[in-house]
Structure formats: structure tokens, C-alpha cells
Amino acid sequence: TRLDVRCELCIPGGVVCGALDAEGTVHDVTPDIWRNCQLASFLRHELYDAELTAHSDTLRRYDPVPTPEEEKRLLGIVEEMYSAGVLPGAVELVAQDVGGGCTAEHMDLVLYAVFHH
């Protein structure tokens, strides 16, 4: 979606969420944008080089799908986005490490990340 989703915690309570575009306009966060966010965060987790965080005291890695229910929901999101034709076009914009011989022309990064997990 090329939107940056931002969530602000309001004290004493509540959270305000908005999707910011390149021009700085804030949009409402729709269920489609939330699904994109869930998938994007999963992909970042799976495709991030684990060696960079293995010995880091500042970064901590959490399992993005800690329960079978979360995994089922993520797979449902992936299936829904493929069925809608959203992912094939989006995957072309992402490239894996060229040094490893894998680019968007050679593989589907979403399926790679799902199978890797």
C-alpha cells in the first residue's frame, strides 16, 4: 500500500492509529491495511538476517506467530491476498539478497518466508 502505519499510545488510555502516505496525509487504517501490516511484519521477521541479531543486546526477536491460531490467521491472510491478486505484483518490488542468487524474478519471497517459518 506504500503507507506507513503509526500507532500512538494515549495516556490515560487508548491508542490512535493512522496510515501515513508519502505526502504526509493521514488515512484511516482499514482491515486491508491491517492485513498488509501483519504480513509485512512477518516478512521482515523472516527475511531479516538472524546473524545480525544473534549477538545483539539491543535487539530481541520474538516469534511473529507464537500460537497455532496466529499461524492459521497468517496463512489465511496470505491465501486471501493471493486470491485477490495483491501479492504477485507486490512481490516484484521486493528483492532478496542477490549474492545468494535469489531475486524477485527467481522466487516468491512470501512463500519462501512461509515455508522458512
UniProtKB/TrEMBL annotation:
Pfam families according to UniProt: ChAPs
GO cellular component terms, A-Z: exomer complex
Single GO biological process annotation from the record: Golgi to plasma membrane transport
InterPro entries: ChAPs, TPR-like_helical_dom_sf
Superkingdom field: Eukaryota
Protein name (record): Uncharacterized protein
The species this protein was found in: Chlamydomonas leiostraca
